[in-house]
Structure formats: C-alpha cells, structure tokens
C-alpha cells in the first residue's frame, strides 16, 4: 500500500489547473501578465469611447454639428471658404476610387518639400465657432455691400423733401 502526501497531491492538482502552455514556475507571472493586459485593454476601450466626445466639445460641438465641425476643419485646412466635407461620404470615394481628396487644390498654405511644413495655425478651444461666425459676418457684409451697389438710389423730388 502506498501513501501519498498532501504536498504531492497539491502539486499535481496545481499543474492540472494551469492554462495550456503554462508551466508551474511561470504561472504567477502569466497570471499577472494576463491581469495587466486585460486592464490595459479595458482602459483603451474607455479612452477610445471618451476621445470623440471630448474632441467634439473642444472644437465647439454644442454650437456646431459634427458635419459643421468637419466643414470648418476643411476650410482651415485648405484656406478656402468654399471647402466642405462630403456627408455622407461616397462609397466610391478615396481611397477606394475616384480622385484624391485634395486633387486640383492649390490653396493650402503648406510649404512642400523634403520635409513639409504646415502653414496652419493651431486651433484652440472652440475656435472653429469663432471662425464660422467671422466668416458668416464677412459674407453677410459682402452681400449687403453688393445689394447696395445694385439698388438704385432713391429719387428725391425736385422741390426737396416735403413735410
């Protein structure tokens, strides 16, 4: 009759509980690696879910819609007040077909060369809202000036104004 000691039994049980490919010597390390990796993945998911809302608020979301924010980025990027985002984006658009996004545009302020340098100013907190309001005010003033030039001057009677 053979006697088994409790330590011998626990050693075999511990090896049976180990994940496939893990030896007893490295089981603690694998356990902590797994915990660390799962923690990092959870944090990345939380960070990713907060990035778009945080950036949208930073660039002016309650005042501007996401499409308007995209339009303002295009206007700043190309230094062109007529640039707009394609919404909804065409399925056959770049990179799957068609001309590239900036094909035929030469309004950007970048210095191209071996090491390109951006000519764009940094966009600050809710600055796209200010850009849009300034552009709309400028366009409204231009439209009013054009309307005044086209409108005939009011004719005053020869005797002068009568009261």
TrEMBL record:
Its organism's taxonomic lineage begins at:
Bacteria, Bacillati, Actinomycetota, Actinomycetes, Mycobacteriales
Regions that span the bilayer: 37-61
Q: Where is the composition biased (Low complexity)?
A: 140-163
Which portions of the sequence form the region Disordered?
A: 89-118, 131-163
Protein name in the entry: Transmembrane protein
Keyword field: Membrane, Transmembrane, Transmembrane helix
Q: Where do Basic and acidic residues bias regions lie? A: 103-112
């Amino acid at each position: 009759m053979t006697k088994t000691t409790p330590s011998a039994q626990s050693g075999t049980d511990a090896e049976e509980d180990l994940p496939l490919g893990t030896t007893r010597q490295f089981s603690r390390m694998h356990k902590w690696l797994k915990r660390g990796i799962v923690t990092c993945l959870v944090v990345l998911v939380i960070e990713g879910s907060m990035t778009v809302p945080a950036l949208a608020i930073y660039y002016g979301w309650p005042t501007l819609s996401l499409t308007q924010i995209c339009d303002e980025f295009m206007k700043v990027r190309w230094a062109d007040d007529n640039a707009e985002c394609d919404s909804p984006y065409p399925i056959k658009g770049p990179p799957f077909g068609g001309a590239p996004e900036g094909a035929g545009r030469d309004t950007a302020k970048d210095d191209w060369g071996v090491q390109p340098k951006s000519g764009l100013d940094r966009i600050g907190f809710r600055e796209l809202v200010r850009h849009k309001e300034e552009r709309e005010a400028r366009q409204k003033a231009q439209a009013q000036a054009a309307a005044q030039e086209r409108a005939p001057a009011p004719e005053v009677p020869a005797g002068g104004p009568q009261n």
